[in-house]
Amino acid sequence: MRITVVRAVIVLTLAALLAACGGAGGQVAATVNGEQIERDLLQRMVRAQLATQGVDPQDLEAGERAERVTPVQQQLLTALIQFELLEQLADDFDIEVDDDEVDAAFDEQVAQFGGEDAYLDETGMTEEEFRNLVVATQVRIEGLIEHLTEDVGEQELRDAYEAQRETRFETRAVRHILVESEDEADDVVDQLEDGADFGELAGEVSEDPGSAPHGGEYDHQPRGQYVEAFDEAVWESEIGELVGPVETEFGFHVIEVTDEESAEFEDVRDELEQELTGGEAQQSFQAMVEQAFAEADIEVDSAYGRWDTTQGQVVDVERLEPEQFDEQDGIPQELLDQFPDGEIPEELLEQFEEFEQELEQQGGAGTP
User: Fold this and answer.
1) Is CATH 3.30.70.3550 what the domain over 159-265 is classified as, yes or no?
2) pLDDT by residue (tens digit) across 127-186?
3) d(CA 188, CA 334)
């Protein structure tokens, strides 16, 4: 049976009454696996965030208030839910928050805000809340990622080094002189072979504004950093060998490789280890968090929206059309769903009847 349009209006009105009288959480904005997130903290954070935008909710009309305030409430409540869940995850893995790490991270965060007064004003949090939520969460994430990091074997590290040695860990420094024509390049070669100073000549005739003031020099670079013809000339020549003319889209080059360096395995071992373990740990951490959100029991006060498991955030409550409502013994299913045990407070039933009677008396009974 379809519910009347009037009754749909009544249901939405009662939903607001439920939130106002505490039936949808009272002073609790949300719960995460039974742990409460207080409404007062969320409200302070929302006011502070809006203040940074020059917005005072009291100055907004009802429609504008919903448009400006609701997204901020949902974003910040989502963050608080994430903070709480990450704390629970850290506890599950016995990740302890070291006070020294928190102190260091706290000082860094405060500095980024521009001082203690600034972060208090912008977040709406007390110092204790800021430390325990924002800062401690940062430390917990680092601890969880470190926990998920698996050891990499020595041979695996050496294999990674050999695979990248030529393309990444070998570098060459070069200098060149760029001119417009091949004849000019031939003339440059002749002058250099006759004993001209490479740096001075580059400063006089090279048309490369980036290197000419520096004697035509480019610092150490690995393979593949220059245009193809230039790069091939650099890596196929001997150190000190004069090469050219080499034509590229920029003109004609006379090139000399001045130095070569090759990083040894021990010099880059720690860097490789961090890369190999860090990437896998990040992926494992992301998967773990996604699973935790999917399995968590998260309840959001309907005054702020609802928790969307797929998106992992607080979103708007879906407003049902009149055709979507059902009823049981004259009581809308939407109202029954608020009380799955069937014990609907008497005062709410009385209010429901009063609203229905009042609207029907005003001629708004609608069509079945």
Assistant:
1) no
2) 888 888 888 888 888 888 777 676 667 887 888 888 888 888 899 999 999 999 999 999
3) 87
Task: Check residue 175 and report its DSSP letter.
Answer: E
**Which residue pairs from 190-194 have beta carbons closer than 8 angstroms and sit at least 24 positions apart in sequence?**
192/242, 192/254, 193/242
**Nearest CA among 344, 322, 324 for reference residue 335:** 344
CATH topology of domain 5-148+287-354: Triger factor/SurA peptide-binding fold (1.10.4030)
pLDDT of residue 174: 95
Residues of the chain with CATH 1.10.4030: 5-148+287-354
Query: Do residues 259 and 173 make contact, with C-beta atoms less than 8 angstroms apart?
Result: yes
Q: Which residues lie closer than 8 Å to 317 by C-beta, 6 or more apart?
A: 302, 305, 306
User: In sequence order, what are the residues at sequence separation of 6 or more whose Cβ sits closer than 8 angstroms to the Cβ of residue 340?
Assistant: none
Query: For residues 285 and 279, what is the distance between their CA atoms, to the nearest angstrom?
Result: 10
169: DSSP letter: I
Task: Tell the burial category of 291 from Cβ atoms under 10 Å away from its Cβ (0-12, 13-18, 19+).
Answer: exposed
Distances (CA, A) of 134 to 109, 231, 239: 9, 48, 54
Question: C-alpha angle 229/233/237, rounded to 5°?
Answer: 170
Residues 6 or more apart whose CB falls under 8 angstroms from that of 121 comprise 48, 51
Q: Let me know: does 57 contact 47? Beta carbons within 8 Å.
A: yes
